[in-house]
């Protein structure tokens, strides 16, 4: 004789899970860059006491100070070409601070 046995198994499982969550600090809010400050041109003081200097030597000094535009004005109305042939009689705004990109006017004679 053959016997068949049927078994019913009921399983109950209880699962307990513990999770640890570590929160990352929030990213800092984007900070707007400050508006750029107004650009002020670089300045230098125009040398004083230059009367009697050779124009070429003064030109070297003005260039070393950073002046970009130097205008040579002859007292005779002649065109100033070779600076080494001219003597300085004066300079406009001597001893004053001036923007480097503004013209410096030098008066010369032969």
Could you give the distance between the termini? 144 Å
> For the CA atoms, what is the radius of gyration?
43 Å
- Run of helices and strands: EHEEEE
Helix content: 10-25%
List the total number of helices.
1
Oligomer: single chain
Name the structural class. alpha+beta
The CATH architecture of the domain at 43-109 comes to 2-Layer Sandwich
Roughly what is the average pLDDT, rounded to an integer?
83
The residue ranges in which pLDDT falls below 50 over 5 or more consecutive positions are none
- Look up the CATH topology of the domain at 43-109: Trypsin Inhibitor V, Chain A
Largest sheet: 3 strands, mixed
Spatially, the strands of the biggest sheet line up as: 2-5-3
- Which term fits the overall shape? rod-shaped
Q: Describe it for me?
A:
It is rod-shaped and about 135 Å long. The longest helix has 11 residues, at 55-65. It starts with 42 loop residues before the first strand and ends with a strand. The model has no long low-confidence stretch (mean pLDDT 83). The chain has a domain at 43-109: Trypsin Inhibitor V, Chain A. A three-stranded mixed β-sheet has the order 2-5-3, covered by helices on one side. The protein has a two-stranded antiparallel ribbon with strand order 1-4. It has 110 residues and is an alpha+beta fold. Helix content is 10%, strand content 20%. The chain contains one helix and five strands; from the N terminus they run βαββββ.
